[in-house]
# Entry
Amino acid sequence: MALLQIAEPGQSPVPHQTKRAVGIDLGTTNSLVATVRGGRSEVLSDAEGQAMLPSVVNYSSADGARVGAVAQALSSEHPADTLVSVKRFMGRGRADAQQEAERAHYQLADNEEGMVSFVTTQGTVSPVQASAEILSVLETRAREALGGEIEGAVITVPAYFDDAQRQATKDAATLAGLPVMRLLNEPTAAAVAYGLDSGEEGVIAVYDLGGGTFDISILKLHRGVFEVLATGGDTALGGDDLDAAVAGWALEQRPCAPLSGGQHRALRSMARKAKEALSTGNSVDLPIAEIVADAQSLTLSRVDFEALIQPLVKRTLRACRRCLRDAGIAAVDNVVMVGGSTRVPLVRAAVADFFERKPLTDIDPDRVVAMGAAIQADILVGNRPEGDLLLLDVIPLSLGLETMGGLVEKIVPRNTTIPVTRAQEFTTFKDGQTALAVHIVQGERELVSDSRSLARFELRGIPPMVAGAARIMVTFQVDADGLLNVSAQEAATGAESSVTVKPSFGLNDEQITQMLQASFSHAADDKNARQLAEQRLDAEQLLDGLEAALAADGSELLSQPECEALHRLMKELREQAASESIDDIRKLTEQLGRASEAFAARRMDKSIKQALSGVSLEALDQEVSE
Ligand code: ADP
Ligand code: MG
# Structure
């Protein structure tokens, strides 16, 4: 695939006037904001010197939302009013998110678009609103640190985020009053922070083990441009699971009556502290008595901890193996470690062992994504005189539209680098057709019924013409943030119609993987289904045309037996078309085509005669002699 470098508009006309630009890592567990100052990327801290803002929003007070550590402190007391991990719900439909919400003890509300929102004491709150609260705290922090309004922000998202999830992230930024220049894939941001973009070529694995998710991405650097070769991971595996393993172990050692919701959260947070301490220490004490009266303290050694989490670490490596296979890569040049959980020494050792390469860990794994985003923001806002790199991402699933017979025509194939514009010409199916139904679908399968429907719109005002004569240009445009705009334009009149796709809910990486796997395992079936649909379409087109012709000229140009013979064959083909046999439909279609040839010839004669009937003899003579 050709990678095109694209000039970015809005370079600063005054080279030395720096604009206020920030990079934001809007994380599932923690969020950060960074900026480039004096040529160096640095994370901005709050008044207490804390850089990491826990991605927690509390809605138990009428005075407004509380964000970060203060919200976290309220979570035991107000579990249902304290939203954690809202990123998991971004751009997802209610049905889609039900299980996740139950696990987190949230109560979901219904809203018009079928999107998720949570019921809190202060009313219903959407994941976009909660994320906007987090962004707004970071925006204030940046504004105060930089002494003025932020002129441009880059916000990072997981590489597998789909249109709906990306759009939701943008919406949250808009709500928070942040001017977003670009959404950037998290692994790409991490690679940029390590300056890996300054190399010429190379393959980079980004291993990101955060609080609740594990992402592995394989990036390819080619002439200063990153391409995502493959992504994988597990949306339900992260530091939280390490905490759960420790908490489970504690309960096994000290059996007690079932814990309340608050006690449970308290035990989890104790387990988390213990886990983090074990990244540097060799053993840690768990003062269980603080949670369950009369329970004795416990001590957990590093060795026992490693035995507890070994299965979880192995699961991440299995995902790495799959991802390498998807990318068609045997070895990588660099491994970048991202996410707080990569501080666990066992994780580092296992990753080094797996990739046979010492992973890059010099930059704080919590901060590396925000720092990379800040570098990109600095470039995009125009603070660097040299154009510098522009990072291009790819779309995870093919985009296409529905054609006659319920078939998918792929317009932008999966893994195409974005931004991208692709156009293709289509035409009408029926004589006199004046409108076109455009149905946009996503996925790798051949049939619309097996694909994911993204949007529909209609193009009206096509002048009536015979089937196949109209020319309609359909253009798919995916912008740098992965958002899709589709437009259709009729050539003769210029009539135009378009839609920006905002699907009602998103797909997670697991579903994308499933859709891809389904397309591989159904490849043969799909080919068959496509041929069948096409054959049926041929039959239908012939039958329709013949029907109209018989109604117009049948009684005049055909004898009774001829007419009956044609009708018999037509009936037979109509029945056969409902069958699954491609060959039989093809044979009958051909037979009917031959049987109607004489009729077609007579109609041709008739229409020529008609055309000539008004022409004078002299004119005809002239034409003939010419
Ligand atoms: P996210 O990307 O999901 O927002 P982070 O990258 O901030 O998450 O990682 C948060 C996770 O990292 C938490 O589970 C936290 O306990 C874990 N973590 C932070 N510091 C350490 C440490 N020193 N040792 C082990 N785990 C840590
Ligand atoms: Mg993260």
Observations:
- Residues 1-16, 387-392, 616-626 have pLDDT under 50 and may be disordered.
- Residues 27, 208, 210, 339, 369 surround magnesium ion (ligand 2) (CB under 6 Å).
